[in-house]
Specification:
Number of strands: 8
CATH architecture: 3-Layer(aba) Sandwich
Radius of gyration: 13 Å
CATH topology: Cytidine Deaminase, domain 2
CATH class: Alpha Beta
Strand content: 35-45%
Distance between the termini: 12 Å
Amino acid sequence: MIEIPRAIINELIGHARIGFPLEVCGILGGSDGAVSRLYRMTNTDASREHFTMEPKEQFEVARDLRARSLTMLAIYHSHPQAPACPSEEDIRLAVAPDVSYVIVSLTEPDNPEVRSFRIAGGKVEQEELAIT
């Protein structure tokens, strides 16, 4: 289970809307399964169908998390025109089995969907997402 405060959920959705029609991406940090920080990242692919995080920004986030005694709990990205489920590419590129993968879908712009998954060894499991 991952816990994400309503304010951070709203920020995730806002980031997805600002980036539309391209995918956006970022990192969620916190401790003990509870998210407390959101880091917007640059999608260097500037694509509607996939994302790559800017490496320098990733390094800066890792440094900030360490300075705050937090850990990376999740990687998030948007699906501007697809459901909030991992794509084949998302599954293939998921290399961190100890983090959650949070997806924001804007297929219904007035009713965005946010779901979280664990992906390891090509296997996908939806996990409980508690909005606090």
